[in-house]
Amino acid sequence: MADISKEQVKHVAHLARLAVTEEEVEQLTKDLGAIIDYAEQLNELDTENVEPTTHVLEMKNVMRKDEARQWITQEEALKNAPDKKDGQFRVPSILTE
């Protein structure tokens, strides 16, 4: 197990503003030690010819290309509007006094 002390657990709990009991400190010391031991297993791997990556999965842009295209005119957009004024859609007011 990695060397992690109860004082370190208490210090981290204090920094995180966590109230922990002595029993919880005991358990956290064991648990965090086991986690560190598990992470240290990575040091045993031969990573000499492994290229560093920033993501485990391939990242690709799923957005379409931004291409200029012809759009409808203001008159075409408003032709089926039930109510319009000054080139804009007119809707009922939702603000009350």
TrEMBL record:
Its EC number is 6.3.5.-. Pfam families: GatC. SUPFAM superfamilies: Glu-tRNAGln amidotransferase C subunit (SSF141000). Residues 76-88 have a biased composition (Basic and acidic residues). It catalyses: L-aspartyl-tRNA(Asn) + L-glutamine + ATP + H2O = L-asparaginyl-tRNA(Asn) + L-glutamate + ADP + phosphate + 2 H(+); L-glutamyl-tRNA(Gln) + L-glutamine + ATP + H2O = L-glutaminyl-tRNA(Gln) + L-glutamate + ADP + phosphate + H(+). It is an enzyme of class 6 (ligase). Residues 75-97 are annotated as: Disordered. Keywords: ATP-binding, Ligase, Nucleotide-binding, Protein biosynthesis. It comes from the Bacteria. Gene3D superfamilies: Glu-tRNAGln amidotransferase C subunit, N-terminal domain. Allows the formation of correctly charged Asn-tRNA(Asn) or Gln-tRNA(Gln) through the transamidation of misacylated Asp-tRNA(Asn) or Glu-tRNA(Gln) in organisms which lack either or both of asparaginyl-tRNA or glutaminyl-tRNA synthetases. The reaction takes place in the presence of glutamine and ATP through an activated phospho-Asp-tRNA(Asn) or phospho-Glu-tRNA(Gln). Heterotrimer of A, B and C subunits. PANTHER family: GLUTAMYL-TRNA(GLN) AMIDOTRANSFERASE SUBUNIT C, MITOCHONDRIAL. Belongs to the GatC family. This is Aspartyl/glutamyl-tRNA(Asn/Gln) amidotransferase subunit C. It comes from Oceanobacillus caeni.
